[in-house]
Known about the structure:
By secondary structure, the chain is of the alpha+beta class. Helix content is 20%, strand content 39%. Strands 3-2-1-4 form a 4-stranded antiparallel sheet.
Amino acid sequence: MNMRLPALVLAVAAFASIFGTPHMLTTYQCQSNGFRCVHYTQCHYIGVQGWRTIYPGFLRGDDCPGVKFFGLDWPPFVWRAD
């Protein structure tokens, strides 16, 4: 029996549960001084878990990275005691 596929699935699941899933920046909004962005107000991402929007703080240096990892929050993975 080939154990490569189950090991790969387990490795991907472990990576996603520890680091999150990758999302790519699609659009952003920022306030500028006429020449460049002073600070970002919204960052819109698309990825494995769908569309995400984040609102960075107004501190200098907060930006919208091209690739961002978001933690898992899929409802099927959430166990609820009813």
